[in-house]
């Protein structure tokens, strides 16, 4: 969109050290004084690095040229809005792609193969749509990637299938063997082998 605008001036904010994506925070201030002079300041909040530029009222454009450009801007307002939506959708999708790739890299083998494969497939689709011009397709790919990405956490927290069942089964088997040994050592009252006996009448003695 900047290609359609008149450049009033440029400056470079340098001296900012390399940092992971999303870490640098640049604060840009636009200040127009009573004389129509525009002061633009850019400051990187982490390092404190700062650059500024002053734009005077003179733009090198005649009054007729200014009027013409204003009319052109108004006539292309709807088109510009669509461009803005497309750019914003691409930025959101690109950011989610970065988040997904970083999550897979950080998690490593902790992510189940099926979940990893699904996320990778959605990342591939999102990248393809970002390169295109279809706004709805980009948004759909972003939503689908978001859904797939949400499966990583729960999948990592799940215990491998059969692990608990096997352990529980082994524990029950041990308890069963212990119970058998205990029954052998301490037979229940009245139990055991049957012994034949005879009844003696004491009065006949």
UniProtKB/TrEMBL annotation:
Residues 62-82, 172-186 have a biased composition (Basic and acidic residues). Residues 159-170 have a biased composition (Low complexity). Keywords: ATP-binding, Nucleotide-binding. Residues 195-205 have a biased composition (Acidic residues). It comes from the Bacteria. One of its GO terms (molecular function) is ATP binding. Residues 45-82, 152-205 are annotated as: Disordered. This is Molecular chaperone DnaK.
